[in-house]
Amino acid sequence: MDYKLQMGVVSHLEQMGSLDHSSMDDLDDECLYNPEMDARKAHSTDSIEQVSLSSSLPVGGRKTIRNGVYKSIKTVVFSNKLNLLMPFGPLAILVHKTTAHNGWVFFLSLLGITPLAERLGYATEQLAFFTGPTVGGLLNATFGNATELIISIYALKIGMIRVVQLSLLGSILSNMLLVLGCAFFCGGLVHHRKEQVFSKATAVVNSGLLLMAVMGLLFPAVLHSTHTERHDGKSELALSRFSSCIMLLAYAAYLVFQLKSQKDLYVPIDEEGSQNEEQSDDDDEAPEISKWESIIWLAIMTAWISILSDYLVDTIQGASEAWDVPIAFISVILLPIIGNAAEHASAIMFAMKDKLDISLGVAIGSSTQISMFGIPFCVVIGWMMGCKMDLNFQLFETATLFITVIVVAFFLQEGTSNYFKGLMLILCYLIVAASFFVHEDPLSTGESKRPKT
Fold this sequence. Notes:
With 453 residues, the protein is mainly α. The protein is 80% helix and 1% strand. Helix 7 packs parallel to helix 12 and helix 8 packs across helix 14 (327-339). The radius of gyration is 32 Å and the shape is globular. It is a multi-pass membrane protein.
């Protein structure tokens, strides 16, 4: 009896399952042949076809590209008042082609390069949004010094070795005294109620590298001044080339240390609360142009700076004679101020935002890169070109650099800054500028072009 009852229940459940399956199939069939569903499907397929047809039209694609280019040009070129100086670049070329006034060509070239150097820094900052803070800081320092390196290479091509030496030296002095001083001063005025802090470890590493660069420049100068060369005229050059290779190796090791071991080098190390607050502020900031637009603008600005640098270098001697200003003053003071426009703006901006570690990385990092990479790189490039580019910057210039490094290292040892320290650094730069204005460099006037090897 129980067995029959169980069989009846099972058969009843099977019948219910078959009915459920058949009912579900009927419902599916009804849904498949529903006219409203047919109308919706037809409408959706028509809209998809319209979207695909409109997206495949070449006119719309060209219009989108045109709008993107217009927006990029508007953002980069017309968003800064300093870009009003850009027409002076073509004007310098026009004056050079039509007249022989080297002073005007030099002055107009300086004015034309100024906004380009600043826009170069802007494009680098935009690219830093996609690369991270550490690589972004290195890119900022690298492209910030691109103007000086381009001018140096053009000067090496025509044998103006002394201009190369003085312009690179002036870039180091400008970054360490003027740029860092303005950053400390402006940041201290904005945050006058507290003392701004930065990483002492970073400052110590950069100060050590700068002292190593001073060592590399000091020994060839002392060797030349004491007349103790074993091979007259050759030992100094050989020592300079060997020291340049060592300095390039040290800078490569520094980059590895910075990128691998010290990934948070450009991240402020304040209290945890303020650090998280700054990170949230960074998250709110967004790039204004895309990564590829940044790269394209970097290439355009670098090429245009290269063209104007050629005219700038060719007219230095004429501008010095026309204005009655020493070439040493033009090379050490005027050229670096124009070339450091990007670092100047970036360092002040970050200091006013209480991001002093980034300001220190831009200013002192640029000085470190010029001293440990730019100068040795020019020595090696001159070696390849057959120019006797060496590390003998003469005693006056080397002593100026040595005292500057000591003064800046003294100001950085506490890991704090205020507007008074910034003012002191700016005043020190004024003393350096006045010293080079009254300094007559015999190599700049009489030996601007050296014989090739």
